Amino acid sequence: MLSITLRIKILFSIILTTALFGIGMVVFAKTIIYSKLSNILLEQTVYIAKKMALDCVNPVITEQYFKVTIMLKDVITSEEELVYGYVLSNSGSEIAHTFEKGVPASLIGVNNVKSDQAFSVKKLATDKGGVYDIAVPLLNGDIGVLHLGLSDKMLKSDVNEIVTIIILYALTLLLIGVILSIIFSQAITRPLRSLSKAVEAYGRGEKTESFPVDSKDEIGELALVCNIMLQRRKAADDDLEKTVRELREALDRIKKLSGLLPICASCKKIRDDKGYWNQIESYIKTHSDAEFSHGICPECAVKLYPELVDKHGNFLG
Predict the structure, then answer these.
(1) Rounded to 5 degrees, what angle do the CA atoms 60, 63, 64 make?
(2) How far apart, in whole angstroms, are the C-alpha atoms of residue 256 and residue 275?
(3) Per-residue pLDDT, 270
(4) Average pLDDT, stretch 244-257?
(5) pLDDT of residue 209
(6) Which fold is adopted by the domain 6-100+111-168?
(7) Among 134, 162, 137, which Cα is nearest to 150's?
(8) Which of 87, 219, 224, 240 is 20 to 30 A from 40 (CA-CA)?
(9) Is the pTM of this model over 0.90?
(10) SS3 letters across 150-210
């Protein structure tokens, strides 16, 4: 089974968290922010289109179409997001436009606005990218319709800049997180490694008085618990060693009195290992923990003190 160190786990969690944060922010920028900016930009462009539609009413009625063309070119020049503008009459003929060769046939009729509508917006796919065609009727469409083309190219460029900033920010956070995680993991793993080495040394039988307590957090509490276990183990070992020592001493004493003992058939003295003859009580006392208290048996009492005992060896009254 693959072994992964605690430091690698911390580093991996920091990297994964930062990466997920960065991906989430990129998705947020690509969707929510893009949608919000698009709506804001459309609202602004619709406002411009409505205002310009009002300004175009008199020139269209008076057939000052050149003035309308100048107005369209001025608004296209002032607003970078606008890529075209044109005005069609109520019959669909061109009145004014900003194109070099007239209004493309692909644009005519793709975004029709009804007379009861204040404006109409439709997104078109062109060779220059996505374009929102905004149509505003002139006098409810009685004299024509104004069209402005809003490109989303600038908007996408702005969103991409935001995404780039987010990625740079996420990478910066990632670098800071990696550095902090290395420092943090060292602060965690250093006392753990010290404790692990001490426990391993104790397991090999090396003499250990106590395990190191390098911190006052949960790791320090773990070391304190290990020290309590160590003291209890040492006390148990001491008790066991004492018991073993006592058993060995008792066994040694038993061994001293085991085997054949040379004893005199007459005086009952015992010969020791050095060849000396000892009284039996002296020999046993030397080679064991037994103590002697002298008395006299009934048979010897009859032999030695016949006048003081009866025939059974009981002392008389």
Answers:
(1) 90
(2) 16
(3) 79
(4) 72
(5) 65
(6) Beta-Lactamase (3.30.450)
(7) 134
(8) 87
(9) no
(10) EECHHHHHHHHHHHHHHHHHHHHHHHHHHHHHHHHHHHHHHHHHHHHHHHHHHHCCCCCCC
